[in-house]
Structures are given as structure tokens and as C-alpha cells.
Amino acid sequence: MSALESLTIGIVVEQKDIANRWQDYSWSPIAVIPGILDSTIAGDWKLLREGVDWKHYLIGTLELELFKGETEGYRYNLSNEPPSVYVVLSPGEELGDRDIIPFLATICPYEAESYSENGEDIVEGVLMPLEIVEWVQAFVDRYHVDQPFMKRKQKKKAYDPRKGVIQRHLKAGQETDE
Q1: How would residue 164 be classed by pLDDT, with cut points 50, 70 and 90?
Q2: Which of 58, 85, 114, 144 is deepest in the core (most CB within 10 A)?
């Protein structure tokens, strides 16, 4: 399934000093910047600001993609106050990698939730900028189709007290393997 629309966004994270013997810092996505070009970063992190025990970095760009089949998730996200862009950060695994690597940005909360299950990735929602809200809303307005709720019908089964099990109705003259 290919995206119908995409937007390049910059990923901003916070590095916070923590008092932990196994880890020096905690990492958290804190913002996205719509429309930023990858050449702005040129492959290296950019320090944006810092305080006593924290630093904010622009760490890279990701493509925020919209798909026709995920409009229900987008609608749900837009109904939240405030709506979010979900950012997935993966741990660096290769020698020379940074502690974290931007992996995915999504508007769909259901997709974001699936990445939180492995326990290794950092998955957090950040405030969706108004420009992205308007872009996503226009996409939903164009492509969303309500799907009616279809309750599945339960198959009728007959109870045979001699066997203590439930059997499917058999046509006259048909034998069972039981």
C-alpha cells in the first residue's frame, strides 16, 4: 500500500540528564517541524537550545505519510484535544550510531501503538502543528468512507447430550466421524 500524500517533518527530541547507574540520559520526542528539508540537518544533529540538565536537538527528518485505508485512525486522532503526531525512536544498534534514531512518524494512533509493543522503541505523541492538522483534515475530508458496523452471525450448533459436545446440524442421512 503506497501513500497518497506525504510531508517531510523534522524531529525534535529532548535529552535529559537522569540519575541512573545504567543510563546517562532519557530521550523523548517533543516536537515536529513541518516542511523542513533533510539538507537543513545535513546528516548531523543540530542543538536547538539547552538548560541545566536538558538539551533539545533536531535529530533528522521523516516522511509523514497518509494512506486512504487509515482515515478512521486519522479521524480519531483529530478528535483528540490536542491531536498528535506520533514519533517512534529506535535505539542505535550499530557501532557509531547515536543512542536513538528517528524511525517513524505517523498520524494513526493504532499504527503507533503497534510499535510500543516491543519495549525497545520510544513511542510518544507530540503536539500536531496547525499546518499538519489542516493537511490531515483535508485528506480525511477527501478520502474517508464510513464503514457500517456488521455484526457477525453466530452459526447454529446442535447439542447432543449423549456425546456431551456441540455438533453442527447435519443434513439428513449424513454421518459423522465422531
Answers
A1: low
A2: 85
If one compares 61 and 93, the residue with the highest pLDDT of the two is: 61
By the 8 A CB rule, do 25 and 16 touch?
Answer: yes
Question: What secondary structure does DSSP assign to the chain, as a single string?
Answer: ---SEEEEEEEEEEEEE---SS-SEEEEEEEEEET--HHHHTTS-EEEEE-SSEEEEEEEEEEEEE-GGGHHHHHHHHHSSS-EEEEEEEE--STT--SEEEEEEES-HHHHHHHGGGSSSEEEEEEPPHHHHHHHHHHHHHH--PPPP-PPPPPPEEEETTTTEEEE---TTPPP--
Q: Which residues contact 110 (CB under 8 A, 6 or more apart)?
A: 70, 73
Q: What is the C-alpha separation between 64 and 6, in angstroms, rounded?
A: 5
Please state the domain extents for the chain. Answer: 5-143
pTM, two decimals, is 0.78
